[in-house]
Amino acid sequence: MSNKLFGKFVLVIFAFLLLSGGLGVETVLVQNIGVFVGILLVVLIWLQKRKILFPPFILVYSLFLLLFLINSFVISVNTKKSLEVFSLFLSGGLFWIISYNLKKELFPYFDKLIIPLGLIFAGLYFYNNFFGDPSTVRPWSLYLNYSAYRNHNNIGDLWAAVLIVVIYHLLKNPRNVLLWPITLLGGYLLLISQSRAAYVALASGVLFLGSQKGWVEKYKKVLAVFLIIASLLFLIIGAQKTTLLTRQYYVQGLLGFIHNPQGVGVGNFDIISRNPQNHILGLSHFSSVAHNIVLEMVTGLGILGFVFVYWLFKVMTQIWDDKNKKNLVYKTVFIALFANFFFHSSYFIPTMLWMWFGSLGIIVSEA
Q1: Closest to 350 in 3D by CA, of 55, 132, 82, 95
Q2: Which residues are 145's β-sheet partners?
């Protein structure tokens, strides 16, 4: 099989996994399938190319996974939960290696895959609203309500990444008439999602895109429009639900780390949130997740969680220092998703995490 054909085969497999990982159904099973498929694809890449290249800082990430696994069995208050999260981040690491080795094959298509993916989940959202049950709750779904409060839908978090790709291609070719209605659809989905994390992700991506490409001055009016839209959406939704009082588990997490420096096992943030020791000034609102990927790892792994923080710092530094403009759309998707992960628990959705790692492999690959 030629490398080009093999790359398209991998792209089809990846597209199927991205779709499955956003439905919110049997999420753990999907994660485990992701691990199995990831290992299988790594083997197939070796058979196809007779070599496997490892991305920069893979040793640091491997150490993180090893410590994660040990913590799950030795420290975690709920080993089963921790192992479920471990499988997700293991699959993410595998897709990082896969995309790193298949940059030449995936580079022309991977960003364009994100747009139809967003359209499919948009279709599922509208179908459920008109023909299903709009009150349905499924936290790790990309088109249903995140919680019973019905004040957050992950469709906006996905579409922040979709819009980044759309904006990138619009700035390259403003005459592409197909992208303008998609932009309007994305704006509407971000509005109804009520996801402030999505607005921050969109704004972060637009700012990074403009600064790296030198488009801030050239297209300052266009970029200003998107920034104004993101800011207005944030303010409109922020007026309906306060930021500090709905993120009081950040304070709980910081206190939880102080009281449990050894960690409680990733996936067990509910232990931190329920503990009265971590409630100050009446901030006792319960959350089962940290809504911040860094805080999730540090409260789960304790001091050892800083290995993940170090890995993330090194990766972000490399992305910022990389001057290759050809990879800009993937850099921007990675930055936007990280901004989303910093303010929401979307890192527990396989589709979102796999897109993050898939983009990372293409960004820094020398394959």
Answers
A1: 95
A2: 137, 153
- List Cβ neighbours of 254 (8 Å cut-off, separation of 6 or more): 295
**pTM, whole model, 2 decimals?**
0.91
Q: How many domains does the chain have?
A: 1
Residue 337 is assigned to a structural domain of this protein: yes
Q: In this structure, is residue 256 part of a structural domain?
A: no
Contact predicate 238/47, CB 8 Å: no
Q: What is the pLDDT of residues 115-171, one digit of tens each?
A: 999 999 999 999 999 999 988 999 999 999 998 777 789 999 999 999 999 989 988
Is residue 276 situated within a structural domain?
A: no
> Which residues, including other chains, have CB under 8 Å from residue 115's CB and lie 6 or more apart?
162, 165, 166, 182
**Non-local CB neighbours of 231 within 8 Å, separated by 6+ positions:** 199, 203
Handedness of CA 227, 228, 234, 237 (dihedral sign): negative
CB 202 within 8 A of CB 139: no
Helix H or strand E encompassing 243: none
- How many other β-carbons are positioned within 10 Å of the β-carbon of residue 255? 18
User: Which tokens is 16 given?
Assistant: 């199927």
Task: Flag whether 258 is in a domain.
Answer: no
> Which residue segment(s) compose the domain that 141 sits in?
3-243+304-364
